[in-house]
Write a structure and sequence with these properties.
Strand content: 5-15%
CATH class of the largest domain: Alpha Beta
Structural class: alpha/beta
CATH topology of the largest domain: Rossmann fold
Helix content: 40-55%
Bound molecules: magnesium ion
Radius of gyration: 18 Å
Largest sheet: 6 strands, parallel
Number of strands: 6
Number of domains: 2
Order of helices and strands: EHHHHHEHEHEHEEH
Length: 238
């Protein structure tokens, strides 16, 4: 067997996990959009976001999280207003300290590509592609991926087979020759294994109980740092 592609999860995998105060991040938005009712709006947006993650989890990814705009519409936000754009910018920049790419990433991605292995990102996210791309570009890794799939652009999300299949179709690699690297046993490892990919687990993230399960999922490999992907993949490619 030869590994021809390695697909990475983003949050908690390419970007080390941080425990963040989601309500506080939404307050950054709400204080600009509707200062008089900021607390209430932030709570509505936070609850709406959590409900979407739960729905995605409970439907095995068949129903994805959708996009931020849907969340804003549910909360009664006018997404065409200049105030909204200003508030959204504040919200996304509030995430900045938590989005830095793992220091191992550049060497790992260059090493994999040097071995002729294709690389991709598959991320469950409500954020727009342009924001994700700007974060990856800021950290000098955007050009090191052959394909990026953000579930804000697909009806389904991980662990649904369709999103893994989408990535591999675009990379033109058979699942049995592909590995997935992720921090979530259910979304990432179970999802990847369900279409025949190998799953490499990085077990450092504090996944909310409402978004995790103990289904007896066994990763094909467990690593302690991102850079160890290289040795695992090299070991599978002999
Ligand atoms: Mg993750």
């Amino acid at each position: 067997m030869t590994i021809q592609a390695v697909v990475f999860d983003w949050g908690g995998t390419l970007t080390p996990w941080h425990n963040v105060d989601l309500q506080e991040l939404w307050m950054g938005y709400a204080e600009i959009y509707d200062p008089a009712n900021a607390e209430h709006l932030a709570e509505t947006l936070n609850h709406g976001e959590q409900a979407r993650w739960s729905r995605q989890f409970e439907t095995n990814g068949e129903v994805g999280t959708g996009i931020l705009d849907e969340l804003f519409h549910e909360a009664g936000v006018d997404t065409s207003s200049p105030l909204h754009f200003e508030a959204l910018e504040r919200y996304l920049s509030g995430w900045d300290p938590h989005t830095y790419t793992d220091p191992d990433a550049v060497e790992l991605l260059e090493g994999l590509r040097g071995m002729g292995i294709k690389t991709a990102v598959l991320s469950n996210t409500m954020w727009p592609r342009r924001h994700h791309e700007s974060v990856l570009e800021r950290d000098g890794v955007l050009h090191l991926f052959d394909y990026l799939l953000f579930t804000s652009e697909t009806p389904a999300g991980k662990p649904h087979k369709s999103v893994f299949a989408d990535v591999l179709y675009n990379l033109d690699v058979d699942p049995k020759n592909a590995a997935f690297v992720g921090d979530r046993l259910f979304d990432d490892i179970h999802g990847a294994q369900s279409i025949g990919m190998k799953g490499i687990w990085i077990p450092h993230s504090n996944i909310p109980a409402s978004q995790s399960t103990d289904l007896g999922i066994t990763p094909d490999a467990t690593i302690q740092r991102l850079g160890e992907v290289m040795d695992v993949v090299a070991g599978w490619s002999v």
